[in-house]
Amino acid sequence: MDCYTANWNPLGDSAFYRKYELYSMDWDLKEELRDCLVAAAPYGGPIALLRNPWRKEKPASARPVLEIYSASGVPLASLLWKSGPVVSLGWSAEEELLCVQEDGVVLVYGLHGDFRRHFSMGNEVLQNRVLDARIFHTEFGSGVAILTGAHRFTLSANVGDLKLRRMPEVPGVSSFLQMAVSFTYRHLALFTDTGYIWMGTASLKEKLCEFNCNIRAPPKQMVWFVLDEDSYLVPELDGVRIFSRSTHEFLHEVPVASEEIFKIASMAPGALLLEAQKEYEKESQKADEYLREIQELGQLPQAVQQCIEAAGHEHWPDMQKSLLRAASFGKCFLDRFPPDSFVRMCRDLRVLNAVRDYHIGIPLTYSQLVLRRLYPLAIQICEYLRLPEVQGVSRILAHWACYKVQQKDVSDEDVARAINQKLGDTPGVSYSDIAARAYGCGRTELAIKLLEYEPRSGEQVPLLLKMKRSKLALSKAIESGDTDLGEQGLGEDEAGNPGLSKGLGWIPIPPYRPAVFTVLLHLKNELNRGDFFMTLRNQPMALSLYRQFCKHQELETLKDLYNQDDNHQELGSFHIRASYAAEERIEGRVAALQTAADAFYKAKNEFAAKATEDQMRLLRLQRRLEDELGGRFLDLSLHDTVTTLILSGQNKRAEQLARDFRIPDKRLWWLKLTALADLEDWEELEKFSKSKKSPIGYLVRENRRALPDVFPPSSPKPFVEICMKQHNKYEAKKYASRVGPEQKVKALLLVGDVAQAADVAIEHRNEAEMSLVLSHCTGATDGATADKIQRARAQAQKK
Fold first, then answer.
1. Confidence at 468, pLDDT banded by 50, 70, 90
2. Residue 444: left (phi > 0), alpha (psi -120 to 50), or beta?
3. Residues 424-454: pLDDT tens digits?
4. Per residue in 264-274, pLDDT tens?
5. Bridging pattern class, strands 75-80 and 130-138
6. What phi and psi, each to the nearest 5 degrees, are found at residue 141?
7. Which of 312 and 139 is assigned the larger pLDDT?
8. Which of 255, 396, 470, 544 has a CA positioned 20 to 30 A from the CA of residue 556?
9. Can you give the pLDDT at residue 310?
10. Residue 731: pLDDT band by 50, 70, 90 thresholds?
11. Would you state the pLDDT for residue 58?
12. Is there a contact between 23 and 241 (Cβ–Cβ < 8 Å)?
């Protein structure tokens, strides 16, 4: 026990730190670490080295070589550097190597030295050059921060979605020569040009300490530790990795569970359980004494849990086994200890020990296995840990496929076939994502072949558009039925209906396939007008959708489409809409209507043509009426025009207009009746009623079916009802007396003469009419009338 804690070093009174060797580094370095730019990825990630020939004190003798090693020193890649001077190296969260050049260009390489892409940090950085740079990680992704020669900061919080931000100028920033941020981004250390080191919170609001180290030259690295000249520090979540030419070590705080078990003279339950298990293996009775002591204190479950937890923090398998044996020994004396934590720890340690192997060289976690292209081992680990297929094997196979498309020495046909045979219909694998990687590698034909295996046609569309294969994308979009694909401006209204927010406002799109609409916009910009129209003619659904778009945005294009298809019916409708939407002068509107009428004649739609010509005549007449009478007539309907003339006292003009446009007498009578009643011209109304026999009657229930648009169901009694509507009972009674016998009772009830209505009903001996009158009798006022009807009913029944 004492030997095990020999490498523990106390820090104050509350914590111990220990350092143990991860690997003995056998890499064959051609340069000293001090002469290289070095970047090591966290979480046991790889190490990148680039000999720095741009150092002023050491002239370059040859082109530098960029080398990538695993954490154990196994070579992964090596390539001759042919680009510009590099200021800084760093790894992204996806373990892509970012090389920041002096001119602000950032080159991105894969784990195995394959070039991925490049981007620039802007013109200001290019002009002022890069003084220093750092790669950092946040919840948004991996970012790059640049300090320019003008001592200004430029950064991007996510290199995957590059958005440059120029930070405000920091006064006195030139006095800080080195800066270090803690792994958790909570603390900051600054090294000044006077040799002072300031440590505090990252917000700069709280100072932890400040001291003078009496060194003016800036250190090579600052990671909160004093470092050896030929070593490199890699901050981790729970410690620091330290590697040199010969060794790779890990320095960290001793976890609480390990400290309680292994510290000298510890009486923690875990320590007693470990001793009990060792004594048990020796067949010593002391095992029983230790075990009884733990049980008397009721701490056996805590002891088991301590041993399980401590095993997870130990690097050496022998100590892991010793702690797990102790935990297993303690579990035997517990009735209901849940086994999940023990089983899970055994599985995790087996995986961690496998990936810590020198040939794999990942000293912390198994999550980065896939990036090392150790696909069989990664799949076995996923199956061993019983991860869901979508989270485990599917992701590994997808990554393998993305690597496969980069093998340019294999034909497109062979690569596509191999990927399909391996992946098949594996859930969670997207062929479109793999095709996108192939396209990114310059293998367009391979990308198209891979897209053929994508079962969701809508997923194929975005990449096909990116590859300028818009016609194929249109066919796939029509097949897809995808209602989620969209682009800028495409969305849904409050009711969830797809549409385009652009120009004149909201353009509704049919609920099927807004993907088609997206492709159409690309095709329109990509092809010339003739080819675009020809493509649409071969796709009827796409043509219909584009016409709908043109109705809101491009009317002239819509007219050209109708002309090309000789669609005279739609062309006529187009000119009618255009006559009202675009033309304000009466002459222009009439000309547009004439064009529409000609189109309708060509379409052999004589009804529409005649109706359009009638509208032209009405427009000319309305303009003439406005010139002669004043007032507003233009754009009124035919009925409203007649009504306006009657209200203006122009009865003869109204009758002439009715004759010219063949308005039926019944409809004209109704229009005139309504207009005179609105004017309350009762004398003229009475003259009108006597001019000839009314074609609409006085109670016209029988005429409603003939003229439903003239006599709505709620208005069966023109003269009588119109007068009552104007609260003129006197005039209403005049017309009630002229109603025929079959409508007499209803007319009398309408004007409120219940007694006379009862007399007429009794005289007619009509049971239905008597019942109708009784339903209108109310209270004492009509009591005598009701009795009279009841007596008449009784007499009728006796007979």
1. confident
2. alpha
3. 888 778 888 888 888 888 888 888 888 888 8
4. 888 999 999 99
5. unpaired
6. 135, -160
7. 312
8. 470
9. 92
10. confident
11. 52
12. no
Which runs of consecutive H residues, i.e. helices, occur in 314-392? Answer: 317-331, 340-355, 375-384
Phi, psi at 67, each rounded to 5°: -120, 140
Sheet strands side by side (includes 498-502): 490-492, 498-502, 505-508
Q: Side by side, which strands form the sheet with 105-109?
A: 86-91, 97-101, 105-109, 115-120
Q: What is the mean pLDDT of the chain?
A: 78
Average pLDDT over residues 25-38: 85
Burial of residue 409, with CB atoms counted within 10 A of its CB: 0-12 exposed, 13-18 middle, 19 or more buried: exposed
Which residue type is seen at 730?
A: Y
Cα distance between residue 402 and residue 459, in whole Å: 17
Determine how many CB atoms are found less than 10 A away from the CB of residue 770: 22
The phi-psi region of residue 45 (left if phi > 0; otherwise alpha if psi is between -120 and 50; otherwise beta) is beta
Candidates 673, 646, 670; CA nearest to 657 is 646
**Residue 48 burial (CB < 10 Å; 0-12/13-18/19+)?**
buried
> With the CA atoms of 460, 466, 467 and 470 taken in that order, what torsion angle do they form, in degrees rounded to the nearest 10?
70
Q: Which residue has the tokens 């320095």?
A: 251
Cβ-proximal residues to 193 (8 Å cutoff; 6+ apart), any chain: 174, 175, 176, 177, 216
Q: Do the Cβ atoms of 25 and 231 come closer than 8 Å?
A: no
Residue 733 has a CB neighbour count (10 Å cut-off) of: 19
Question: Is 363 in a helix, a strand, or coil?
Answer: coil
Q: Provide the token pair at 289.
A: 């004494």
Q: What is the pTM of this model?
A: 0.51
How far is 35 from 77, CA to CA, in rounded Å? 19
299-338 burial, b for 16+ CB within 10 Å, e for fewer? bbbbbbbbbbbbbbbbeeeebbebbbbbbbbbbeeeeebe
Distances (CA, A) of 584 to 54, 192, 578, 581, 596: 75, 76, 10, 8, 17
* Residue 171 contacts residue 156 (beta carbons within 8 Å): no
Tokens 């007429």 map to which residue?
Answer: 760
